[in-house]
TrEMBL record, chains A, D:
Alphabetized Pfam families for the sequence: CoA_trans
Entry keyword set: Transferase
SUPFAM superfamilies cross-referenced by the UniProt entry: NagB/RpiA/CoA transferase-like
Protein name, UniProt field: 3-oxoadipate--succinyl-CoA transferase subunit B
Lineage, top ranks: Bacteria, Bacillati, Actinomycetota, Actinomycetes, Propionibacteriales
Top-level taxon of the source organism: Bacteria
Gene3D superfamilies, per the entry: Glutaconate Coenzyme A-transferase (3.40.1080.10)
Length: 264, 318, 318, 264
């Protein structure tokens, strides 16, 4: 994909969605969430991967929406889809069986091995009331265990969002699963790519740690290190994150999210 | 379509169905995954002042916020504590984070964990296995998530216990007067949640002639034997949606956030839109034509398939 | 309907599909419960001379008798050893009762036991629990039927192990060229058996345009991601049937009993109707117009349902 | 139901089907098999129970066939049915959950507690080859455990078909299930009514034995006893089996099985 590059800021939705879209090149099936993943998936279909099959937790497979979906259960995902299956089939046969290549997830906290917390901030053991009741597991724990790999986009990059230790492990990485039961390691690679407003972090090994793979334009490696809650590893071939093309930003603004639901 | 609703069957009105089947302290599942959420039935439960319910729902959605705020719910059994696309459920959060104005018990699973609980309940199994909990803190948070030993030599596998609601309430596009229920679009876990329950109430956009259902038996998600009450309740899923009938009222979902954030506003909303509205017909009128136009949908028809019919020997001989 | 079968997709011919996916010694499931039995595919497997198959099927039906007689099968995994309505499968009986002309391994469950095995396989679970085996001699006959301890304090419950065929073969009314498969009428355990398998071959009455499938996504039983090969094979289920297309050839099922009883007749039948028939097109012609008239069906169409379409903002603004 | 009585012989299909049909009076849902049960169910709908819901192992619920079904997966059961569900739903949610009131089963052998053998005649343990390979379990073991009650019609009444001990217990009665695991007693009553060419035998208690409830016209109680492989109990109020009405026989021959598929 060539063309002039855009100067949208690295923390913008346009920048993050474009970086996320690149993760879908060459993939067959993506488990798409709501919000920024909606933009990333749509952009990928329009630019890098027209044959990508969009699978949604709601049971929709092979969606071909005529308008931008405002949620994973939006009616526009259903009309004209290739299949709509009940949730036992979606979770059991499509996801747990292993038909999803890439899952997009959000998180409040991510640890160095790519385990996610979407449940609580604060203490929760022994009946304690948490400081913040987050949305909970939803289908994230299943996506983490069963998708081929996972991509997470965070809107923050600071030691609160990337702590040394999660307040709660909702969706364990293969590392955490192996620690709990060495025989029960899940099928998936777990988190492969973490996209933040400052950098892209990757895990190269299924049982490895996140390392900084690229740093966004205008952000220093030192800033990335200081903003991470553990002594984060850096890839020997760390580069600057490639900017979105002008065309990517145009597509996002003028064809994908024309009502500016997710783009602010 | 003309339907003789005086004929024997399970057809009733919503107030009667709730009065007959939903009692204080019961475990009640309201299912519909972002689609066909049974809001009208939930509002009727609020109006009838039910208390101490164990409210089961994969994604609580605004319906949980409303029923919790109305004081109907003692315990929430769920997997996701936000409203689909549009932000927090602040009433639920106040209860959980600050016990304000009262505590709320929570029993927490993942989405598939809830699906598995319904599957076990529907098939009268004690539990259902799933692969995804190893290494998660969920089993420590919720001791009802356990493990069993694989008798074929594999690793231990997590299981969730059967969920058998006293009552399951769902909404659908149509049913016949016997209770054969058909739906299309996103089907969620409605079939499992209904079969898991002792009693089932179904609100529908339309009650249709028997022959409409029997012309397409593969479309029936709940056969009549699984259904105790059918209620004609057009637009009974608003502000969620019914595929092909009306779209989700996304504007209302966005409006909910500030309402939910302010307990006084929330109670005022309940007064105006639930307590002072006698039934769904009045609600539909109050919503008003302009708003209904904003969620209207164009037609996009399925094709027909041929089920065939055997040549009767008499005909063949003629 | 015009379909460009040269477009990318999984469309192929039956000989190629079987050659590409079915190897000697594999575990192969042929499913379809009295409906949509994949006879054409079974005959192609016979013609290609596959050996030592583990043949999985809830009800073996004539297809098992034919494939066993042709020497394709080493082991039969099944729950019922007769042909639906019409009598014994004598080739299977000769092997089991007298090892004549050779023994046949049998692994035996009940119908629901087979369904549960496919469900476990489809969901990548190690086993699936069911309630009905306590006190039966089946677990003694088949030591792969085991029990697990209920961690919620109930009695031990029987489980069956996952069944994951190397290949599952089914027949359906239609698919698009990508492999999205739609069927109606009796659905059996085809969805489970297909998802359980590593590879899936689907023969269909008709390959249709994408839009036919996408006009009714709830009718899709197997999404394209679960399907490796789609073959246009009209009348590929004869002598079983395809709802709305042609009826079961009950006369043939009755004729089978004397054929099956006599090994020489059975081998002659295989020669005439399988080995010397190059493909299903030739078989259809050989069956002849008169016989096809005897299984013809009248039309009985389903209705249409409305999936709706959102007003595009552009249109709304116009 | 009144009207003149027929003198068809007690061993005839017409006699047995009519006696079986009476078991469906007042029931809601019947799990119907092929053959004689097809006739019994159809006759019951026409005479005693027009609202009876016909459920078939193939997944059909609320069948309303336009012609006589030639099997449980016949296309005429599907066209115009109220519902067709996949087999995991039929076996798991309809049957195992407990929605079936009466199940019709066949058997090669029935023991005094109503356990059934449909698997083998002869020895089978230790890899022995059986004398006769019977059809096997099919769905019978599930129907026995999960239907409210079971009706069996036998075409023979002799010590081979009613032995003291089954060659193989395919579908255990609650008595046999309790003996295997006292905590795993199934939901259903098990076999309540056994109809043979000589008599009707019933179990009054879920854990009780079969006893002779009625003897067919022209058959002596002594003959029934001598034909049974154990010392069979006799109900204190044993009566003569009521004959079919002329109208029942006419319906079977002229409206139900007009092609004489099951009637010989």
């Amino acid at each position: 994909m060539t063309g002039p590059l855009s100067d949208v800021p690295p923390a913008s939705t346009e920048f993050l969605a474009t970086v996320a879209a690149r993760e879908l090149e060459g993939k067959q099936r993506v488990f798409a969430g709501v919000g920024l993943p909606t933009l990333a998936v749509d952009l990928a279909v329009r630019t890098l991967n027209p044959d990508l099959e969009l699978v949604y937790e709601s049971g929709v497979c092979g969606a071909r929406p005529e308008a931008m979906a405002e949620g994973i259960a939006d009616s526009v995902l259903v009309s004209g889809a290739a299949a709509v299956v009940p949730m036992p089939v979606l979770f059991g046969y499509v996801l747990q069986r292993g038909h999803v290549d890439v899952g997009f997830l959000g998180a409040a906290q991510v640890d160095r091995y790519g385990s996610l917390n979407t449940s609580f901030i604060g203490s929760w053991r022994d009946g304690a009331r948490p400081d913040v009741r987050l949305p909970g597991a939803g289908g994230a724990v299943e996506v983490m265990a069963n998708a081929g790999e996972v991509v997470v986009v965070l809107r923050r990059h600071d030691p609160g969002a990337l702590p040394d230790r999660l307040d709660f492990c909702t969706s364990p990485s293969p590392v955490a699963a192996r620690a709990a039961d060495p025989r029960a390691v899940p099928r998936g690679f777990g988190l492969r790519t973490l996209i933040t407003p400052k950098a892209v972090l990757r895990r190269r090994d299924r049982f490895g740690e996140l390392e900084v793979a690229s740093v966004h334009p205008g952000v220093s490696l030192e800033e990335v290190r200081a903003s991470t809650g553990w002594d984060v590893a850096v890839s020997p071939d760390v580069v600057e994150t490639r900017r979105p093309r002008v065309e990517d930003v145009r597509l996002l603004r003028e064809e994908i999210d024309i009502v500016r639901l997710y783009l602010r | 379509m003309s339907v003789d609703t005086s004929a024997p069957g399970v057809v009733t009105d919503l107030a009667s169905a709730v009065a007959a089947h939903v009692e204080d302290g019961m475990t009640v599942a309201f299912e519909g995954f972002g689609h066909l959420i049974p809001f009208a039935a939930g509002h009727e439960v609020i109006r009838q002042g039910r208390r101490d319910l164990t409210f089961c729902r994969m994604t609580p959605d605004l319906l949980a916020d409303q029923m919790v705020a109305a004081g109907c719910v003692r315990r929430l059994v769920s997997a996701f504590f936000a409203s689909g696309s549009a932000g927090s459920l602040y009433e639920v959060r106040r209860r959980v984070e600050d016990a304000d104005p009262a505590p709320l018990e929570v029993e927490e699973y993942s989405h598939y964990g809830m699906v598995c609980r319904y599957q076990a309940g529907a098939a009268r199994l004690p539990f259902f296995p799933l692969r995804s909990y190893a290494g998660s803190d969920l089993p420590e948070l919720n001791p009802r998530i356990r493990t069993v030993t694989d008798p074929y030599g594999g690793p231990d596998i997590h299981v969730v216990p059967a969920l058998n609601p006293d009552v399951t309430i769902v909404h659908a596009q149509r049913a016949d007067r016997h209770g054969n229920v058909q739906m299309w679009g996103i089907l969620g876990a409605q079939q499992e949640a209904a079969y898991a329950a002792d009693r089932v109430i179904v609100t529908v956009e339309e009650i249709v002639d028997d022959e409409v259902v029997r012309a397409d038996p593969n479309r029936t998600v709940l056969p009549a034997h699984a259904v105790d009450a059918v209620v004609a309740c057009p637009r009974g899923a608003h502000p969620s949606y019914a595929q092909g009938c009306y779209d989700r009222d996304n504007a209302f979902y966005r409006e909910w956030t500030p309402i939910s954030r302010d307990p006084a506003l929330l109670q005022a909303w309940l007064r105006e839109w639930v307590y002072e509205v006698p039934d769904r017909t009045a609600y539909v009128e109050k919503v008003g034509a302009e708003r209904w136009r904003s969620v209207a949908v164009d037609e996009r028809l399925s094709g027909r398939v041929d089920y065939g019919r055997r040549y009767a020997p008499q005909e063949a001989a003629q």
